[in-house]
Recover the amino acids of this structure.
């Protein structure tokens, strides 16, 4: 861990933070964020304010300890909380305890024995705000969403080693950190072991997948839809399936393993679809997968769906799992319009009595807004839905505060 020598260290002094009454109530109720506008006073900061990663202690008006977090001067969410209740020491032992607690929440998934790829730490929802840790077998991927973590890596990385003993730990950085001084670190660096030169193999519900943990999207794979992928597999026997926004083929592989006779996977990214082809190939030892006719098509989802409609293409199952449409609050209306257009197109491609799975990962779109939009769009297209199930977050993506919820999906029969 030679890289640790070049990293900054947290300041030995702590910032003392007092909040507005409303913000204090929210923190005591469990909210993990303190916005800049909610801070009534800061003591202990230097002439230029607190530094990134400084420990910030929230006190009430009687100087009683309320919570402690990491200071982030580059964000309107100025303090991200890691602990509340009684005073505690933030050190390697503290981070180790946090990591082990996160693993314990996922123990039912681990105990299944057929899944070696999943999320170990889900940011704020595991009291480690702005930090994600994903497991791919014995390789872990640490993704940071704020530079406030850099001074704490000197303790966090050894804590990860203590808790999980990975063969390798790969560093990934959110887009907002590009251009941030990284003190010698680079995207894709190995903080433990060696960065893998090839995709990592892992299992999901007994199926084999690959992930490019150094260059792939996010940390290499999207674990959050695992439960929905498994669900689709239970309905796929002898079905023709359309997998829109297919990415690296997670839904397609589960559908093929479930007995689908024919699958068309569509995505804008040719490299992602090439990975989908390989993920199908990794599972050809299963008779169901070997018997499935699988093909990919690169293109814009809306254009491809319109073309399929004109050609009279129909499917027993249509899966629509688009990326987030809401990078900011002002884009919510536009996102709802996109879901409307997708639902209208998707239902036209479903054979009578077939199934539609339509998902949203747009955190700023509420579940009620999403379900109502999809339902109304399908009805206007003349194919009203019979909802079978609404789904949310899997066990490895826990939600502990309102803004932490983003994933929702509806599985419906289309008469």
């Amino acid at each position: 861990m030679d890289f640790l020598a070049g990293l900054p260290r947290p300041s030995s002094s702590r910032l003392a933070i007092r909040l507005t009454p409303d913000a204090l109530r929210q923190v005591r109720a469990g909210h993990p964020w303190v916005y800049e506008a909610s801070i009534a006073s800061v003591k202990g900061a230097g002439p230029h304010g607190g530094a990134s990663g400084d420990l910030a202690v929230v006190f009430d008006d009687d100087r009683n300890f309320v919570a402690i977090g990491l200071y982030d001067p580059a964000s309107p969410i100025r303090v991200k909380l890691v602990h509340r209740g009684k005073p505690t020491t933030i050190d390697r032992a503290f981070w180790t305890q946090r990591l082990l607690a996160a693993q314990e929440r996922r123990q039912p998934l681990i105990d299944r024995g057929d899944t070696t790829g999943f999320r170990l730490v889900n940011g704020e929802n595991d009291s480690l705000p702005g930090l994600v840790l994903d497991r791919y077998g014995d390789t872990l991927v640490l993704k940071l969403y704020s530079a406030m973590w850099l001074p704490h890596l000197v303790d966090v990385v050894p804590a990860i080693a203590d808790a999980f003993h990975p063969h390798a730990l790969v560093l990934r950085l959110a887009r907002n950190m590009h251009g941030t001084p990284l003190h010698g670190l680079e995207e894709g660096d190995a903080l433990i072991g060696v960065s893998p030169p090839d995709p990592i193999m892992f299992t999901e519900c007994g199926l084999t997948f690959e992930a490019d943990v150094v260059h792939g999207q996010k940390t290499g794979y999207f674990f959050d839809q695992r439960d929905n992928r498994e669900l689709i597999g239970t309905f796929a026997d002898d079905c023709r399936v359309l997998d829109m926004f297919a990415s690296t083929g997670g839904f397609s592989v589960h559908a093929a393993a479930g007995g689908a006779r024919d699958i068309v996977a569509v995505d804008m990214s040719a490299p992602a679809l090439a990975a989908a082809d390989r993920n199908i190939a990794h599972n050809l030892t299963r008779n169901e997968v070997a018997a499935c006719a699988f093909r990919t098509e690169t293109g814009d989802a809306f254009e491809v769906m319109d073309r399929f409609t004109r050609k009279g293409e129909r499917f027993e199952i249509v899966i629509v799992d688009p990326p987030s449409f809401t990078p900011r609050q002002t884009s919510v209306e536009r996102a709802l319009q996109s879901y409307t257009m997708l639902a209208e197109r998707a239902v036209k491609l479903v054979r009578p009595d077939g199934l539609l799975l339509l998902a949203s990962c747009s955190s700023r779109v509420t579940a009620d807004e999403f379900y109502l939009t999809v339902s109304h769009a399908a009805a206007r297209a003349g194919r009203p839905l019979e909802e079978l199930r609404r789904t949310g977050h899997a066990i490895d993506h826990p939600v502990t505060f309102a803004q932490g919820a983003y994933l929702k999906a509806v599985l419906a029969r289309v008469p």
